[in-house]
Design goal:
Strand content: under 5%
Radius of gyration: 43 Å
Number of helices: 50
Helix content: over 70%
Structural class: mainly alpha
């Protein structure tokens, strides 16, 4: 018998493992102890449910209820086992051992019962070596069990066999099987043991090399099989198959054929009985029938004999025909339909649920072609499409039944077999999903299974993506697999699977919704790079999706968050244009137009203020002038778009609102649009000769706002701005009248109560910083007229406007009178920030050190902010310090400050940010040493910085959305250092990795340039 044939027969046998009656449940129990046994089962259930306290109470009650039964050695031992299981179920093996050691009789039933219970617990906890030692010690010590030990011996022997089979120790399991025959077995239990034992021998026989040993094992197997043939039950069918298998191993082909034909009536009876219990095969009982396998076995024998005859120099053609299509009847001359082809067709058509059906169908086609080629004869028993469909459905159903029982390894084997025969059918799509999940479930034990799972997923995705009928189901299976990864917390694999789904199934009904859900999740986690990838995919691929406009809106929002003003404006312009082209753009068009106007406004202000700072670096005059002009242009566009918002709502508000909520929001936006239009007119500062006209236009816009919204939220501010603008125009009369209206109409407003600081803030907001600073000086000169809170607000406004010199004065005003520790702390930190803005790092350093050293201030949470500021201050000082020792002290101070902060910032995200800051400190130190010409020290510091940034690159999981920003910055800092270090290959790898991880990253252009440098440098 070849190994290939052995495998064919062995598959069915192995498939029956565990199907028979559970051994322990098959042993007879005395009627007198039946009630006690029920209680013991209840106790065991409580222990399995992790309810040891209740189980202990039930044990105590059981002892009291069954004193006579509990007094018997075996019953007493079982009760002690129940008590011990309470400890063992919790893994308290040492406590359990103390109980065992306390038993005086080390050979009695109680001692061994508890020892075996401990062995069972070791097995349950997967501590197989320890379980093995205890089982073996028992079998060695108790060779001839008697009395109360019989039951424990029998149960332990069977459990030990199961453990050895599970661990793949088949030879040892065969020896352990023999132990079971040392004790009496009930009939059903004995038949199961003999069947399982013979089956194991059949599995082992192909690998036995010594003839003497092999003959001995065959003889033992035959003896067990023969004892199963006297009663027609499930084991009888197994016995026929195994006996045929053993005859084949002996080379007795004739005997095998006669055996199967002689027992066919009994096999048919068993099959009919199983069919009555499982008519449609859904319970899997029909698959246990031995009849189709025996027919298949007989067909294979006949086919093999025919093929062997055909290969002879002078073949007997009549014998070949007899073997393949049946012998001729002596009287009628007709074929008896008992040839290999007939048996194959019989198995294929009549037993579609059998695992041999599909193979039988394949072999029948092989024989059909063979006969056509050799004899030019067409066999008239074609398999219909309906029969093939039935076989296919049953084959997949059998595999699915195994999968549904979580028998994933067995399901893999079955699915591979069936899918090889039916690779592209309605059932194969869900089968591939099951197969992928089976591989995933077994990947923890088998490294190759993880790779196979990916292979199956890739095949499923690519093969059915364009299939007109199966694409939808295939896409659903891809989603199912991805979510299965998610349930197992394998997020990287989940993302990979969805990436394939989005790539191959863009037209799937759920694709757009899924991409949007992924995008929204990434957006919520502030992983804007990942979110942008998904939003862009929707905007480019799913243009008809209901999420199309939402995606574009989000893209603009991300650009705003990342301060990419030009990209934000371009995206919003496209968004508004596409919305306006719709028949009913609705509320979204109002929101989009308002956002576009505000984006113009913010960008325009940033351009106008770009050169108006305290920075000492020179800026090209032409460039500054161009920026100023562009800033005015942006503000002019803002005015137009805010006007459009108001106009659309004035003319036809109903067209842009569907409910009360949208109506309310539209009213709020109309008011804000009218007010902000006036603000934008106020902020335009060019051309200079047109400024008086622009101021009057702004006044008219503010007056229009007040006229339309006299009780509006911004009315006091509008009235203040009117007075301020008239003041700038030196129109004293109208300015005074405007401020009188402010006091009269809005007496409780902050603008009326704090007109001087509010005017100062308004002037700075307009862009007239000189005038605004003058107003603040007026405020400071008033002395005690203003409160500490007002001075603090002024200081904050000045700091935000980068008027750091005046901000320092304002913070000094606060500190001169403040008593509240919180106000003092905020003022000191604000003063330090302003000094940093003035680049007075030495003074800022002293302020921060004093803050940190202060006994009261150091108790506040703000001490962390002070240390963070000190990191920047000390390292900035170090950048310009020429003395080596002093420079080292400053950078060490920065590092010490970071160490202090680490004690307060403990989350992974915060720790990663601090790691990044550590690298940035090294970056500044390297820059300082390089600028001072300290090449040796600079090279050393550069190396340390590379190590710091590379450490983050290697340790941060790219899938961790919370750390993606830190990872991106680490690449940005590290790559130019690698180029400077002439590590061109490493730089190239980092560039390529960055571009793969952050295809739309903020440093994309820089990295692409560095990539070119790295390649040129190699």
């Amino acid at each position: 018998m070849t190994k290939k044939r052995s495998k064919i027969f062995g598959c069915w046998l192995v498939g029956l493992l565990g199907v028979g009656i559970p051994l322990c449940g098959a042993f007879a129990q005395a009627d007198a102890e039946k009630a006690l046994e029920d209680e013991l089962k209840y106790i065991e259930l409580l222990q399995q449910m992790r309810m040891p306290d209740i189980a202990n109470e039930v044990i105590a009650e059981t002892k009291a209820r069954f004193p006579e039964a509990a007094a018997k050695p075996e019953a007493a031992a079982k009760l002690r086992v129940s008590e011990l299981k309470g400890l063992l179920s919790q893994g308290l093996f040492n406590d359990a051992q103390k109980e065992i050691d306390a038993i005086p009789d080390k050979n009695g039933a109680e001692f061994w019962a508890l020892t075996l219970a401990k062995a069972d617990a070791y097995y349950a906890f997967q501590r197989y070596d320890e379980a093995d030692k205890l089982y073996l010690s028992f079998f060695k010590k108790v060779e001839k069990p008697a009395g109360a030990l019989v039951t424990f011996y029998r149960d332990a022997a069977y459990r030990y066999v199961q453990m050895l089979l599970y661990l793949g120790r088949d030879k040892e399991a065969l020896v352990a099987f023999r132990n079971l025959f040392k004790v009496p077995l009930e009939e059903a239990a004995e038949r199961q043991v003999r069947a399982d034992m013979a089956e194991l021998m059949l599995k082992l026989l192909p690998d036995v090399e010594k003839k003497e040993e092999k003959d001995k094992m065959i003889k033992e197997a035959e003896a067990n099989v023969d004892k199963l043939l006297w009663k027609q039950d499930i084991w009888f069918g197994k016995a026929i198959v195994m006996k045929a298998h053993l005859l084949l191993m002996r080379g007795d082909l004739t005997g095998t054929r006669d055996l199967v034909e002689n027992y066919m009536p009994q096999l048919r009876t068993i099959h009919d009985s199983l069919r009555d219990q499982d008519p449609d095969g859904s319970q899997g009982l029909l698959r246990m029938s031995p009849m189709p396998q025996c027919r298949y076995l007989l067909a294979v024998l006949l086919m093999d004999e025919a093929m062997a005859e055909a290969k002879k120099d002078k073949p007997d053609e009549d014998r070949i025909k007899d073997l393949l299509i049946g012998e001729r009847d002596a009287q009628s001359g007709k074929r008896k339909q008992n040839g290999a082809f007939n048996h194959f067709i019989n198995v294929f058509v009549r037993f579609p649920e059998s695992q041999w059906a599909s193979e039988a169908g394949e072999r029948s086609e092989i024989l059909r072609k063979f006969i056509k080629t050799r004899y030019n004869a067409d066999l008239r028993t074609p398999v219909t499409e309906e029969q093939m469909r039935r076989v296919r459905e049953m084959q997949f159903a059998g595999a699915r039944l195994i999968f549904s029982r979580n028998q994933f390894k067995e399901a893999i084997d079955k699915y591979l077999l069936v899918l090889n025969q039916f690779p592209e059918s309605p059932e194969s799509v869900s089968a591939l999903g099951d197969l992928a999940i089976s591989y995933i479930e077994t990947s923890g034990e088998d490294a190759e299974a993880a790779l196979m799972a990916e292979t199956v997923i890739g095949h499923l995705s690519e093969r059915f993506a364009c299939h007109p009928k199966l694409m939808k189901e295939a896409g659903d299976q891809m989603r199912r697999i991805a979510e299965h990864y998610g349930d197992l917390r394998m997020e990287d694999k989940r993302h990979q699977t969805y990436a394939l789904f989005f790539r191959d199934y863009p037209d799937h009904y759920a694709a757009g919704q899924l991409v949007m859900s992924f995008a929204e999740r990434e957006f919520s986690a502030k992983n804007y790079v990942g979110a942008m990838t998904y939003y862009r995919q929707i905007s480019e691929t799913y243009t008809n999706s209901p999420y199309y406009f939402d995606a574009i809106s989000r893209m603009a929002q991300i650009y705003k968050e990342e301060e990419q003003a030009t990209n934000e404006i371009q995206t919003l312009e496209f968004y508004v244009e596409r919305l306006g082209a719709r028949e009913r753009p609705g509320h979204a068009l109002i929101v989009g137009t308002f956002r576009l106007a505000d984006a113009y406004r913010e960008y325009g202000i940033s351009l106008l203020h770009g050169g108006d700072t305290n920075e000492t670096e020179t800026v090209d005059a032409a460039q500054r002038a161009e920026e100023q002009t562009q800033g005015v242009n942006m503000l002019s566009r803002a005015v137009m778009n805010f006007n459009n918002v108001a106009k659309m709502l004035d003319e036809n508000a109903a067209a842009y609102q569907r409910n009360d909520e949208e109506k309310q929001r539209n009213e709020q936006m109309r008011e804000l649009a009218v007010f902000t239009r006036a603000v934008c007119l106020t902020q335009i500062n060019q051309p200079e000769d047109k400024l008086p006209l622009l101021r009057k236009l702004a006044i008219n816009a503010y007056e229009d706002y007040i006229k339309r919204f006299p009780k509006g939220q911004y009315a006091p501010r509008a009235q203040l701005q009117i007075g301020t603008l008239y003041t700038i125009l030196q129109d004293t009369t109208n300015a005074q009248a405007a401020f009188e209206k402010l006091s009269k109409n809005y007496p409780e407003s902050a603008e009326a109560k704090n007109s001087v600081p509010m005017q100062a803030a308004a002037l700075i907001e307009i862009g007239l910083r000189g005038e605004g600073v003058a107003k603040y000086r007026e405020m400071f000169a008033a002395g005690g007229t203003y409160t500490e809170g007002q001075f603090m607000a002024a200081a904050d406004a000045l700091e935000k406007s980068r008027e750091y010199d005046m901000a320092v004065q304002a913070y000094d005003k606060v500190l001169s009178t403040a008593k509240d520790i919180g106000l003092i702390a905020n003022a000191r930190l604000g003063r330090a920030r302003s000094l940093i803005g003035l680049k007075k790092y030495g003074e800022a350093h002293k302020v921060l050190e004093a803050f940190i050293a202060d006994k009261e201030l150091s108790k506040l949470a703000l001490v962390v902010d002070a240390n963070l500021l000190l990191v920047d201050v000390a390292s900035e000082e170090g950048k310009i310090e020429k003395d080596d020792r002093e420079r080292a002290r400053l950078f060490n101070a920065a590092v010490d400050a970071l160490k202090m902060v680490r004690g307060y910032r403990t989350t992974p995200e915060e720790q990663a940010e601090l790691d990044l800051m550590t690298g940035e400190v090294l970056l500044r130190r390297w820059s300082a040493e390089k600028k001072l010409g300290l090449n040796t020290q600079a090279a050393e510091t550069r190396g340390k910085a590379i190590v710091a940034f590379q450490g983050m690159i290697l340790s941060i999981d790219p899938g961790n959305l919370a750390l993606s920003s830190v990872l991106e910055k680490s690449y940005f800092h590290c790559i130019p250092l690698l180029l400077e270090h002439k590590k061109f290959k490493d730089a190239e790898e980092d560039c390529e990795k960055y571009l793969s991880l952050f295809p739309d990253g903020r440093y994309k252009t820089d990295v692409q340039n560095w990539l070119n440098q790295a390649r040129i440098g190699q």
